[in-house]
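Support case: 2-phosphoglycolic acid complex. Customer-provided input:
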Amino acid sequence: MKVITVRDYNELSAKAGQLITDLIRSKPDCTLGLATGGTPLGTYQYLVERYRAGDITLKDVQTFNLDEYCELPRCHPQSYYRFMHDNLFQHVDLQAENMHIPCTEGGDPQSQCDSYNTLLNSTTVDLQLLGIGSNGHIGFCEPGTPFTRETFLTRLSDKTRQDNQRFFNSLEEVPTTAITMGIKNILQARSILLIASGRGKAECVAQMINGPITEQVPASALRQHPNVTVILDQDAAALL
Ligand code: PGA
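Agent response - structure generated as follows:
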């Protein structure tokens, strides 16, 4: 695990964005695993700027998102489908058929998990971008998730719902379930880039890097992967 500490969120976003830019330039038909949440916003902004400057094209890039809430239609302002369109997809030349996000609308969740998993297993993600939950989750793989898990229907922990309440009007509005890539899917990526910002992440970052490798801290599974880069701002690195 390569750990890079930078001064602040802006530097973190530029560093992560530059690493993804370098990959797209060296492999224009790469497959990216994408994350949602507050942390990657600056990284996506950086990519949009590089696209607008003519430095990169995403026309041959494929993307696979980590997760999607159940209980929200895709048109809901807080669905991850909307998040990705609002913050990245609509601003770049990514082709609609190359964007993949778990579908949680209608249908049977198990078959939706199975079809996303089949799609994921038909490719190899070159770079998986990750945030980390304050409880150590990656994707929506909450503490206790077996490392062998593939795409599954997950129940969000109370901590995750409280953390994500800031995007909704009330805790009751925060979905209770989601479809997420499993830890096994995440570990199948060729490389992994985890970004964390702020003092609220210092504890889980320290556990991920220095604590035991345990299913109680899902991000600790990343220590079993040979090519992981972690970019932290000074606050997230405070307990290292
Ligand atoms: P955040 O979420 O970027 O909104 O802090 C990270 C995560 O839950 O993975």
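The chain has one domain: 2-233.

Case will auto-close in a few days if no follow-up is received.
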